[in-house]
Amino acid sequence: MPMALKNYFQKGFWKKLADLFRPIYHYLLALAGALWYRFPAKNIFVVAVTGTKGKTTTVEIIGAILKEDGYKVALSSTLHFEIAGAEERNLFKMTMPGRFFIQKFLRRAVNAKCDYAVIEMTSEGAQQFRHKFTALNALVFTNLAPEHIESHGSFENYLAAKLKLARALEKSHKDRKFIIANVDDPQGNTFLNANVPGKFPFSLKNTSPYLIKKEGLEFALENRKVISPLSGEFNLYNILASIMFARSQNITDEIIIKAVEKFSGLRGRVEKVTLSSNDPDSIKQNFSVIVDYAHTPDSLEKVYQVFQNTRLICVLGNTGGGRDTWKRPIMGQIADRYCDHIILTNEDPYDEDPRKILQEIHTAIKETACEEILDRRSAIRRALGLAKTGDTVIITGKGTDPYIMGPHGQKTPWDDATVAREELKNTLNARTA
């Protein structure tokens, strides 16, 4: 047998063997975690929140409503972990950490006498059985858009991975089970088909009439006016998902409205960057600076739409490592459509050439002035320097991500809002009042 052919068959054999045993490994790991921490989910009401976008914000709004009603709550999200008021930042660079994390988190929540655990759950986590042996009480579905296609192989596989959570809810031994789903999404009714007793669909029709402004949202809830400081239609969906979950728990509209109106948003999610009011340079800021996690074409467009009535200076990039490369030209097209000046920069290149990533975005930008500045801090500095009265600088792609991921596993500590605030201070300091 020729050596090249022999090597091909050997590599194919080991790959098939790894593909065969990988699911078994993850399943046994999940079982071991549940055994070690004594199946903590049986002693707490567990809520899973899944979807492509809006998971983190929905987790946090649900938490805010539950706390407003006097419950002790545990929250696990891309942003942070919270148990009975004690918080720690999520530094794992993943939404749903493995290695027993979920079971350990639930055990800590039970020990702290929490009433509810609200957990952001992902398709990749479900693929690796990280949700296994976690008896669910409720599943909240936000939406589904093409994402993680390279890792799942197809959109259908991506949907199937999400639906594993619905199957897990069906199989849960819990008595009280609920599914809350966005029926404006084409997959909403697929989730509602789950065989559970409590079904709570939601739609923008539930809030009509509603008003979306740069400063916030106004909508109706059972003929009562609700004013939220959150911006964008996407956040109206997140609020609706949270409201319908709260109603499944018989929480009064009075409590719900109070919590929603108090909830001012999250770091890295349409986050407004300003200097402290005590800083003498703060009075010089006559333009807006926004940091947002937007990392899909749909979420990028929705953020731009919120501020489209202003001159937009946009800083963006795209993840490397072969992840969802199809998005790059589409992100470029969207930026070209909405932005008045574009600065392409590094995001998380991993082992991929960052210049290649930027070029794949740049090729789709035909009309708008566009620069490539690899160093992310320099790109942010340049954008702020271009800003004039009434403009909006939008920095997308990382949100609260704690690192820039480089080649060979290199991790550079990072925080978009912190860097933007530092560069904003320098920019304003250099200007005359």
UniProtKB/TrEMBL annotation:
GO terms for cellular component: cytoplasm. Residues 49-245 form the Mur ligase central domain. Pathway: Cell wall biogenesis; peptidoglycan biosynthesis. Residues 285-399 form the Mur ligase C-terminal domain. Keywords: Cell cycle, Cell division, Cell shape, Cell wall biogenesis/degradation, Ligase, Peptidoglycan synthesis. GO terms for molecular function: acid-amino acid ligase activity; ATP binding. It comes from the Bacteria. It is found in: Cytoplasm. Belongs to the MurCDEF family. MurE subfamily. Coiled coil: none annotated. Its main location: cytoplasm. This is UDP-N-acetylmuramoyl-L-alanyl-D-glutamate-2, 6-diaminopimelate ligase. PANTHER family: MUR LIGASE FAMILY MEMBER (PTHR23135), UDP-N-ACETYLMURAMOYL-L-ALANYL-D-GLUTAMATE--2,6-DIAMINOPIMELATE LIGASE MURE HOMOLOG, CHLOROPLASTIC (PTHR23135:SF4). The keyword Cell division applies.
